[in-house]
Amino acid sequence: MYKKLRRERPLLTPDVIVTSVGTEISYGKSMVPDENWNRIMNNKWNREIVEEETSKFPELTLQAETEQMPHKLSFHVDKSKVQDVTKELYQRLEKRGLEIKIIFSGGKALDVLPKGGGKGQALAYLLNKLNTEGKLPLNTLVCGDSGNDTELFTIPNVYGVLVNNAQEELLEWYAENGKHNSNIIHASDRCASGIIEAIGHFKLGPNLSPRDVSDFLECKADNVNPGHEVVEFFLFYERWRRGEVENCEAYTESLKASCDPAGVFVHPSGAEKSLRDTIDEFGKYHGDKKDKKFRVWTDQVLATETTPGTWIVKLDKWEQTGNERKCCTTTVKFTSKENEGFVWDNVQQTWSDESEVKDDSNWII
User: Fold this and answer.
1) What is the pTM of this model?
2) Domain named Sucrose phosphatase-like: which ranges (predicted)?
3) Rounded-to-integer distance, Cα 317 and Cα 267, Å
4) Contact by Cβ (8 Å): 241, 294
5) Angle at 333 between CA 332 and CA 334, to 5 degrees
6) Angle made by CA atoms 5, 149, 135, in degrees to the nearest 5
7) How much is the average pLDDT of 282-302?
8) Measured distance CA(177)–CA(183) in Å, rounded
C-alpha cells in the first residue's frame, strides 16, 4: 500500500519506514526488511491460532485483505463491544501460549499484534539500534492522530505532537496522560501544518514550510546549507512555471548573480549550456504550467563539503505534469565565498532509472 501511494503522490524517500502498526521495519529506497525485528515479532506469535480464535467472535469483522499482514490481523468492531471482546480475546490467546497486543483506533478499528509490536516498540527498537551504531538522532519528534499512535508518546526523551484533527481516543489519552508533559503538545493546526507548528514550537527547525515562503530573495539570504539552497531553488522554479510568483527581473538577476560566470549546466540529453544562459531562458516559461497539475520536488538531498569551501549536493529532482513523471539524478557543485554566500559552479543531470518518461522536451533544469 505504501509503494502504491508513492506512485500516486510526490513523497520523499525515508531512511527507515515502519508500517503495519509497527510490526514491519524496512530501510531505504529498496525497503530492505529488518530481519532481527521479524524474529522479535515471531516470539510467542502464531497467526493461524489468532485467526482461529478471532473467528469465534461474531463482533469482529475482518478488514480488507490489504490490511492483513504476517504480524497483524485487523478488524472492525462496534465501540461498545471493544472492552468485552478485548478482555476475552486476551484470555483465550494466553491459554493458547501466545503473547499479543490489541490496539483500538479510529473509533472502529481493532488490530491484533505480537506483544512486542506496535509503533512505540518499533521506535524504541530503532533508537536503541541507532544508539548502538553511534547514530542516535539529536532530536526525535513523534506525530499522531489516532489511538494506534499512543505508544509513540510514551517513549522517553522524545518530543510529541497530536495534530489538531486527532481522533477521540488519542485526545482522551492526552487528557489523562500527556497534558502536563511539556514535551507533548496538541497543535492548533491540522495534518502536516500541525507537525510544522511543533517543529517551530520545540525549536527543532523553522515553523514555516519552504513552500509557504513568499519572498524568494529573503529566504535565499538566510541559507546556511547548500542543500537548502537547491531545495528552495526548485520550489521557486515550480512556482515560476505555475505563475505563482511575479515575473520579476530581480528574481532572475539574483539567480544569475549566484552562478559563476563560467558555470555550466549539463542537460540530461548531454547538451551543455551556460548556467546564466539557462536562467535567461526562464522568462519564456513563466506561467506555462498555470492551472495545470504541475509539481516539482527534490528527494534524497545529500550535501557534502568535499574540501573547505567546496560543496557537492546530490539529489533526485522530480517533475510531474498530469500523471506523467520525470526524474533526473542531479549533482550541483557550489563554492562558498565570503559575503557572497553559495555560488553555483556546475549542475549536471542524468535520467534516473525511476523516471517513467525520459523525454528531453520541456525539461528546463
Assistant:
1) 0.85
2) 1-203
3) 13
4) yes
5) 120
6) 80
7) 93
8) 12
Helix (H, G, I), strand (E, B) or coil at 343: strand
**Residue that has been written with the C-alpha cell 498555470 in this structure:** 290
User: For 330, left (φ over 0), alpha (ψ -120 to 50), or beta?
Assistant: beta
Give, as one character, the DSSP assignment of residue 357: -
Q: Which amino acid is at 321?
A: T
Helix (H, G, I), strand (E, B) or coil at 128: helix
Q: pLDDT for 164-177, tens place per residue?
A: 999 999 999 999 99
Contact 144, 162 (CB under 8 A): yes
DSSP 96-161: TT--EEEEEETTTEEEEEETT-SHHHHHHHHHHHHHHTT---S--EEEESSGGGGGGGGSTT-EEE
Residue with cell 554566500: 341
8-state DSSP, 149 = G
Model confidence over 34-83: pLDDT tens digits? Answer: 999 999 999 999 999 999 999 999 999 999 999 999 999 999 999 999 99
Query: With the CA atoms of 235, 322, 242 and 271 taken in that order, what torsion angle do they form, in degrees rounded to the nearest 10?
Result: 70
Full DSSP string of 252-265: HHHHHHTEEEEEEE
C-beta of residue 114 within 8 angstroms of C-beta of residue 41? yes
Residue type, 127: L
Sorted by sequence, the CB contacts under 8 Å of residue 65 that are 6+ apart come out as none
